[in-house]
Amino acid sequence: MKRAGILNRHLAGALAELGHGDGVLVCDAGMPIPDGPRVVDLAFRAGVPAFAEVLDGLLAELVIEGATAARELREANPETSALLEGLFPGLSLVSHERLKELSAGARLVVRTGEARPYANVLLRCGVFF
Question: 20 to 30 Å CA-CA from 73: which of 22, 50, 95, 114?
Answer without folding.
Answer: 22
